[in-house]
Design a protein that fits this description.
- By secondary structure, the protein is mainly alpha-helical.
- The protein has one domain: 3-Layer(aba) Sandwich (Rossmann fold), CATH 3.40.50.
- Helix content is 56%, strand content 9%.
- The protein contains ten helices and four strands.
- The strands form two sheets. Strands 1-2 form a two-stranded parallel sheet.
- Helix 2 packs across helix 3 and helix 5 crosses helix 8.
- The longest helix is centred in the C-terminal third of the chain and has 25 residues.
- The chain is globular and about 50 Å long.
Length: 194
Amino acid sequence: MAQKLGERHQLQVYHYDRRDAAHHEQLATTIPAYRAFLDASLDECWVYPEPEDLLQRSLQSFRDRFALVIDDLLAFPNDPRIVAEGFGLLPELLAPVLSRPSQAIWLVPTEEFKWASMTRRGKPSFGPQTSNPQKAKTNLFERDMLLAAYLKEQATRYACSVVEVDDSRTADEMTDRIEQHFALELPIEMARRI
């Protein structure tokens, strides 16, 4: 959807996940926990921990990575505008740097949508490399649902918008919905087209 918005409005697109490996390698140079994570087996990372532990590890990673994300974004040219997407962009991190809450929106999946999406896309892709692929998938699913609940709570706390994602809208319809949310943030000539 971020890519579609970028194409519709000639925006630069920042994909948080594409910087995941580079950011963790950079953090690992100064924070031993990241080196330990990068050196651990897939079972140690995804099969043995409880979903709550996976959530806490992810939240810490999001917080530690945020300064690196800001550096990435500042490296972009000033024009055109940037649309940034990624599940590590927490309301608690973004709210202090937003001019207004309407500059951000969070999409959270229903349980049914999340499970179907993971199954359809063969996630996690590393599952077959673990000793227990089903446990790895279940752990990741439960971690993501805990994260969805956390995002909803955080968005409410910071008066930010949340849209629940299920199968009731197509990807294009969801993009239209997000485009409407950002209408005031788009250049005037682009916003008139919405």
